[in-house]
Amino acid sequence: xxxxxxxxxxTVNIDGKDIAVPKGTNVIEAARQLGIEIPHYCYHxxxxxxxxxxxxxxxxxxxxxxxxxxxxxxxxxxxxQKINWIPRPQIGCATNASPGLHVKTSSPMAREAREGVTxxxxxxxxxxxxxxxxAGECKLQEFSTAYGRGYSRFVEQKNVKPKRTELGPRVTxxxxxxxxCSRCIRFCKEVAKDDVLGFVDRGSYSTLTCYPGKQLAxxxxxxxxxxxxxxxxxxxxxxxxxxxWFLKETPSIDTESSVGANTTVSSREGVxxxxxxxxxxxxxxxxxxxxxxxxxxxxxxxxxxxxxxxxGAATATEMALKAAADLLVGRTGPVRHxxxxxPAAHRAxxxxxxxxxxxxxxxxxxxxxxxxxxxxxxxxxxxxxVSRVGQGDKLLISADRNPNVRGALVTGLISSLPSQQxxxxxxxxxxxxxxxxxxxxxxxxxxxxxxxxxxKVAVVYLGTHQNATSNAAKVVIPTLTVFEKSGTFVNxxxxxxxxAKAVPGPAGVADDLVTLASLAGAATRSTxxxxxxxxxxxxxxxVKPLALATYANVPATGLLLDATPWAAxxxxxxxxxxxxxxxxxxxxx
Amino acid sequence: xxxxVERKPLTLSERIYLPQILAGxxxxxxxxFAPNVTMEYPEQRPAIPTGYRGVPTLVKDPxxxxxxxxxQLCEFVCPPKAIRITPxxxxxxxxxxxxxxxxxxxxxxxxxxxxxxxxxxxxPEEAIFLQNQYTLSGYTRAELVNDKAKLxxxxxxxxxxHFKWDKKKAAAEHGNTH
Lengths: 589, 178
Known about the structure:
heterodimer, A: alpha+beta, 3 domains, 7-stranded mixed sheet, 6-stranded mixed sheet, 24 strands, about 25% helix, about 15% strand, elongated, B: about 180 residues, alpha+beta, Alpha-Beta Plaits, 3-stranded antiparallel sheet, 6 helices
């Protein structure tokens, strides 16, 4: 590994305090490190600098030197070098740290300049705060409180502009609210690489619009809504649904691919209203894909499994668990067909070796995979996973559409990469070797098993939604979606990231860990812990790569695990925003 | 330790009762001809002073248009959490141009309401008022949750001039449409 070059530090003075920052850091970021907020609208740390909102105006000065001799000019009163203050304010976002730079962020001149900017911005800004979706998280609202006059001197009529322009399938523009900061334009151009937005017309006629004949339809369009400092760009899905101050925010992980974008799930009273990205500079910066924001709809989907069933008849959770345990451990069901040949050990309830197959899931959390492995070991069952491969977009959706295949590798549930079709399992069923299949949320027909093959075995299905497998299953036990449980995923960088429960699960649906721990307990004839705290002590003790981890000490930005044991595996992912596949990384090195 | 309180001995007039009865009758006689201070509630109702904090209601503007935009500030500020609003977007209507949002459902649980008036104070659209209604009764809990229709029925219209969407309409007609 090549160590990162040591950053070239320069010392700047902000509001009388010295701070050493890497050369090139702008004044807004330098001040942020000192805990000083310089108000800004158009500046965004992940985008280029436009400098068009003029809100971050500061007073700036450089140490005085004699023009002829270049000797420092000293101030007799203080005994320090004299500072030549520039008589007009400068913008903080485009002012880079240089040695000896002096900045006043809240001098009378800077304040007055910002008050002027605010007054101009508010001239044509509508009084929409009571209905605006941005209210409560609006920068204009915040800075108007700090720098606004509190009343308007504007006696003319305000501009009237279109209020609901559909810029794309998911984004609605309220033109009156736009303060022309151009963040959305820069995002589309620089991050989404889909340069469709731009301003047309001049002055107060300026309007954000799409290139003629095009739409803001890329899979990252809703990030423009997130970065809009005002309520001009709104999410069509979230528009007028709930005021943001009611929303409880829960850290979560995007499950649509192995990138594992960090997200914030906003819910109120057990109902999820939106999903927004959570900043993680090592994974997803401040972005996420639109497709991941719609995943919360699965929580209230029509085909959600809400009650356990045996042979299609609804039953109590305990009965279903017992039936599932009986099927897996081998006391009832198809394995009883030849009592005479049944060895004594089997009659006592010990499992048939190899008669149970477990289809685990790359969508299960690390904890669930750990318990699945415990169950599989106790039953001596074969374990397979189903891989989902799609087209990676080189940004935040990778080719591997399972969020946690690497978790299965880390926990030892599987040792090689999964395939898309369960051909081995199909052959085993045809050969009559496998009598019982436990599917953890995987649709077996979609993974290549025929209905006839499913009919030959007893299927135990643990899943969230109804599908062909759940319909064919002997025992169905409903489980929770990622929003209703806590756990961890291992993303494509082998970064252990945790997600937390945002909303309670449907009434009567047990946590996945409780279900799996109960099955594992039945198989091992012992009590298996199902709470995260106790479970993680077991994981740390038994899973070597996770020896130092506990659920509590995984940082918000994730814990990078050592990936070398699996470096040789041919992972299908291509390059994404902060990930280079091992092969191409080796090629470039 | 118990002790005995000595009673004052009764005077002669007290002992013969008559003067006391006469004094009582004098008061009775005077009240017989004095004007009434009670009223026959509920047939008669007292005049409610302005500023009285009765049952919270939703009001319409003088043109009969809905004023509430479902900003949910009253829901937020309500100390006993009596208010529950389901917001929704509003289609453009000829008499309500520029209005975008309105409540789909608006419930005030009168079993919870403490008549504090914070909802009226916080309302940016002057759409919710605690008016002079003070009697409230019902046989079930559900009856005492005022829904949107009930709130508008109780509220009626108030003669105020703050329908701000009209200002926007005026600006549009003035030629400021871009």
